[in-house]
Write a structure and sequence with these properties.
The structure is a homodimer of 503-residue chains. Chain A is of the alpha/beta class and 503 residues long. The radius of gyration of chain A is 23 Å and the shape is globular. Chain A has 2 domains: 3-388, 3-Layer(aba) Sandwich (Rossmann fold); 402-502, GMP Synthetase, Chain A, domain 3, CATH 3.30.300.30. The A-B interface holds A 1, 5-6, 8-9, 12-15, 148, 175, 178-180, 182-183, 186, 213-214, 328-329, 331-332, 334-335, 357-358, 388, 390-392 and B 1, 5-6, 8-9, 12-15, 148, 175, 178-180, 182-183, 186, 213-214, 328-329, 331-332, 334-335, 357-358, 388, 390-392.
Amino acid sequence: MSILQGLRRAVQINGSGTATIDHDRRRNWSELAARAARFAGALAASGVKPGDRVAMLALNGDTYLEYFYAAPMAGALVVPLNIRLAPPEIVAILNDAGAAALIVDRTFAPVVQAIRPQLTSVKTIFDPASLDAAIAAASPIDPIEPVSGDLYGIFYTGGTTAASKGVMLSHGNIVSNAMNMLAEVGFGSDTVYLHAAPMFHLADCSCTFSVTMSAGTHAFVPRFDAVQAIEAIARWGVTNSVLVPSMINMILSDPSVASLDMTSLRGVLYGGSPIAEAVLRRAMATLPNCGFIQAYGMTELAPVVTMLPAREHVTDGPRAKRLRSGGRPVHTAEIRIVDEQDREVPRGTVGQIVARGPMVMQGYWNQPKLTAEALRNGWMHTGDGGYMDDEGFVYIVDRIKDMIITGGENVYSAEVENAIFQHPAVAMCAVIGAPDDKWGERVHAVVSLKPGETATEAEIIGHARTLIAGYKCPRTVDVRTGPLPLSGAGKVLKTVLRAELRV
Amino acid sequence: MSILQGLRRAVQINGSGTATIDHDRRRNWSELAARAARFAGALAASGVKPGDRVAMLALNGDTYLEYFYAAPMAGALVVPLNIRLAPPEIVAILNDAGAAALIVDRTFAPVVQAIRPQLTSVKTIFDPASLDAAIAAASPIDPIEPVSGDLYGIFYTGGTTAASKGVMLSHGNIVSNAMNMLAEVGFGSDTVYLHAAPMFHLADCSCTFSVTMSAGTHAFVPRFDAVQAIEAIARWGVTNSVLVPSMINMILSDPSVASLDMTSLRGVLYGGSPIAEAVLRRAMATLPNCGFIQAYGMTELAPVVTMLPAREHVTDGPRAKRLRSGGRPVHTAEIRIVDEQDREVPRGTVGQIVARGPMVMQGYWNQPKLTAEALRNGWMHTGDGGYMDDEGFVYIVDRIKDMIITGGENVYSAEVENAIFQHPAVAMCAVIGAPDDKWGERVHAVVSLKPGETATEAEIIGHARTLIAGYKCPRTVDVRTGPLPLSGAGKVLKTVLRAELRV
């Protein structure tokens, strides 16, 4: 069982159906599969051998999807690179992976040109022109059929520190995640999935292979941009996407969302953090046909292990607290909360979240010691703290906390952000604890305003006071007009905001 | 990844939710798991060792479900026995499997008593009394956690000939099927699944493990009976079940269906044969909330490889022909139609249906030669003929055909049955070809009437004439008042009807 089976299924049941929409270019499933087989032929012709690593550094587009299938057809492993990496980090990862080939798009071709001399293993670099020529010239490959345990690729995590690790995921890992997504989300040949989050990241990959297995349509925007995403949804009848809460908020804050037809949107999967209630309420009002589904996971888990389905997104009553959770274990994931000795702790007690099941990675590339440590006793140790309630909902406290202790009181940043988001001028918002001589920490908000809007620090604080207790209100507000710093996956980088305060 | 993980998930997310409803006895998921662990302890205490086979011969009930989990907890394999077997067949299968223990219910205890001396491997027989006592006395076992490739059980096919074969299915096979069912059907903790078809059979097992993985509720009737099934649906709010078309027809023909509340029923999975259009129309009218889903498969495929979802059950327009198909490959099944040399044939051409994927059996127990033959070239050879259309729908001609050639004309029995079913007095109906000196074969119908209804041969023929061409109408009709002969899975045994004609 490999990810190639899903591609064959799409061709078999929907060969003439639209596989990809990239700007004005559309390909059907038969065309895409044929092109991937020639792409694989081009890789083989360039000297790529089974087991080799083929990296890609590119914005979203149909070529990225073709790469996801072409590399394994040639027996090679994919190594999708984080587009936020600095050049020295790209060099380090390519050399660590021992990549034999690198595929690069127009945007990143200059960067790759500059680092070329430092790459110790890369023999071939394909830019858009040379890739197109090679595909046109190549014969389709007779694909090597991987088995479930064969590696599909190496996915580097983080990448913003020297400790970036290459997560080895097998075909079985990817298919296992895809089946859980099909069971929890449901895709079909009428799905139009928008790749709006970056395709190198497992968050977007969490749906990529399920959409193909369902013979749905992949649509692309090169990188996340609220206006482009909105236009894509309206133009192509997008039904599903993966976003992070800050992206959802940017879409909802954009004026064009009111003037274009968003009614095709049925399901938005989000992750990385719980959604602020105010954002969710606004999303439900603006996109009434759309269900919101939260997912929790990590690259090492291929990636999803818990999900909070649309029906659990209620903002009132006793179930509303579940919005702060990451949901319950997906069907084939086993989740436990354990203490330092890996003993399961009682429900409601905070411990480390560990996971077991067919989605757990094969290990870290060339890091047997780190692998053994992460997978000790047969469970993936996430490093995330959390607790589980009596009904199996998992609360990730390392996210809930972003907790600020101010004057002895606990303040949850999500609650404060929720209040500030309801101010009509606010586009983005992050609440952190700032070091404070008097209070230990003080509640500090960093706010980005919508274009053309104004609001002062005092107005924001006054607005918050109408909604939440005084001790929870920000004591200081940094009002900005530009966007807040975002991670490659589109999350607000609170670490950056905290570092700014410490300077 | 084993089937035990699904049980742990049910306990974790819905421990106090209803797991089983057997007459007036209800157990929640925590109770059921604890009982299964003690059941496993009782098996171990009786001498059952890891790798041993533990057989069961029983009607449906909560003990059957507990057995499905207790045996693997003790490291043993399940061997569920067909309840239609004759005593010599039971002996042959138990000895072939080398079963170490046998669990038997009240109904089958006398049969087992009679064959006891011929059983060469069985060391312990548990009847209801001794099983209850053993469970009460046992300590819960600390379960052995199987891996995906470990055998879950041996499922004997057919059993009505000497050539009964033991199909070895692994935990991975069963979980793979369960995930496909979750993706195609969808179950949740609000599912109430009625075990109405016999639990030993893979048709019913196709949903058993998905329902547990979803922490839904299992309800039971001891064996299929239209009135009992109807009452169970109304009393317990049954949402889903697996039936064969003849069972659906019996339910629809029973007067109580009109007086009791069937509105809880959301999804009925059926298999074994396509559904007659007249039956489907009546079903849709009588059960408007209920979707009908066809599945095709076999024990060797754990069991489902193609499905026709509810949305494809349309009786008018160009898509109506799909009702005659078995649907399209499920997500992880790969289906090809091949010629005698295992070469794929063009769409629309009849060949043998072969399947590949994580649901394919591990082989036939103690039959390496049969195994190699069935699994040659890496594909399960079903022995069923069929073709695939351009959109991936698979038509199983060995079922469509039940084709009768009469006076040089091809008559499809399903079409004739469809016409006869529309007669208000008809409860069951099967159309076969009877040897005929003049016509080669003549169209012959065997009809069973509803209680209290009457209809003559001439009336049935006259009714058919108003609906289908003259050459398709039955020339002879055998009108009966009792039920037609059914297989263990509830299918009308046309082989028996044909044999009667040949006498």
